[in-house]
Amino acid sequence: MATTKKAAVKKAAAKAPAKAQMIQPIYQQPKIDWRSLYLYAVCLITLMVCLFSLVSLIRSGVNVVYPDPAYVDPYNPTPKVNSAAIAAQLQDQNQRQAVKSMIDALTTLIIAGPLYVYHWRLTRK
User: Fold this and answer.
1) By CB distance 3.0 to 4.6 Å, which of 15, 39, 49, 90 could disulfide with 112?
2) Any idea what DSSP says for residue 99?
3) Residue 14 domain flag
């Protein structure tokens, strides 16, 4: 019985090098998938645009609620118009500018958001 086990081990050892010689690893350079590269680049760019417009939208919202105080030069020797009126006008102008900036940021977010979602879904296919 011991001889049959040795014979089986010798046969298995003889077959092992033959298989190792037949199987050779094939090394291939991964090819660049230009479509995926394009889709990921567009997703990255539109995501960054969305983030920056969201930050701008929040900043504009804060400027609408808390506008910058108007500056009136206290050392002006002869003010031609009441300084309170000038301050109110500058504060109103700052608020209008903040609202315009808010609309710009919201428009950018509305345009870039769906572009990002569309390209991200194409990437996932």
Assistant:
1) 49
2) H
3) no
